[in-house]
Amino acid sequence: MPKAKQGKTTRSGNESAGPRSARCRESARNGHRRRGGAPARCRNSTRERPICAQTGACATTAYSPDCSKRAFELPILGLDIIVLPGVWSPAYDWSSLFYVENLPVVRGLDFLEIGCGTGVISVHAARAGARRVVAVDVNPEAVTNTKLNFERFGVECGEAFVSDGFGAVTGRFDVVTWNAPYHGAPPADMLERGCTDENYRDIRSFFANVMGYLKPDGTVVFGFSESGDLPLIERLISDSGFRVRRKLSDWRQGYNCMLFDLTTESV
Ligand SMILES: C[S@@+](CC[C@H](N)C(=O)[O-])C[C@H]1O[C@@H](n2cnc3c(N)ncnc32)[C@H](O)[C@@H]1O
Question: How far apart are CA 94 and CA 149, in angstroms?
Fold first, then answer.
């Protein structure tokens, strides 16, 4: 199992400015609300820690050396995950944590993640023994971010590259996963593609194509939420020939996250 490399970090109590504030406004507009009305993604996580300029993370990106306001790191189940600006942060909601907590068995398996973001899920899959990890995102900053986290945590079985859905992916996998955007409004920018997919076009395309990237008896793990168009997702699942082996749905901090574990086997 790869060992985590520790970088030098400093603490900051305030990461509320910048993209996250914009995200909060958009999330509210798109109906990404907690029970009780407050937008879930406006929470200001006090666990976020900025990465200082000396860690090397910033040196490998084009961002301002003022890293304390730009990149930061976030502990997710014991790993301090680097989060770059412009990349969907696992602090926006708890879906990434939920996914990692419920990671399917991946030991010895080939694992493909669509929409890797920071790479947090793929890093955990590699550390759980996946044989091969392919992590793709339509957002080039997310790919840079994932590569940084692969490097930080010594993920040698991992590769990350830009791909719109399966566009640049080749081969077949035992597990294909996407912690997907929940909403169907038009995204304003690349960061917003983390939480909204216009008319669910990319999610429709995912279900139309995923079978071609699965090994026989492979598994799809799809992350979604009751705050999105759940009837559509359930229809896409059955129309594409999958059965639901396991459906997890949980509320934390007034916000719902779901995981569908899908198979083509009889269940
Ligand atoms: C909810 S975020 C999840 C990020 C990460 N997997 C996590 O759990 O922290 C959804 C991710 O999907 C990516 N994405 C959106 N549309 C995509 C597409 N058509 N192809 C690949 N990635 C896409 C976004 O850029 C974003 O990183």
Answer: 19
What would the pLDDT profile of 195-247 be if each residue is shown by its tens digit? 999 999 999 999 999 999 999 999 999 999 999 999 999 999 999 999 999 99
Distance from the alpha carbon of residue 197 to the mean position of ligand 1, in angstroms: 10
Task: Give the position, in ligand 1's atom list, of the atom nearest the Cα of 193.
Answer: 15
What residue owns the CA closest to ligand 1's atom 26? 194
- Asked if residues 237 and 262 have their Cβ atoms less than 8 Å apart, the reply is yes
Could you tell me the CA-to-CA distances from 267 to 198, 244, 245, 258, 262 in Å, in that order?
A: 33, 8, 6, 19, 10
Q: Decide: 81 and 74 in contact? Cβ < 8 Å.
A: yes
CA distance 124 to 67: 25
Q: How far is it, in rounded angstroms, from Cα 16 to Cα 10?
A: 17
Domains of the chain: 85-263 (3.40.50.150)
Residue 255 Cα to ligand 1 midpoint, Å, equals 19
Centre of ligand 1 from the C-alpha of residue 180, in Å: 6
Q: Tell me, yes or no, if the pTM score tops 0.85.
A: no
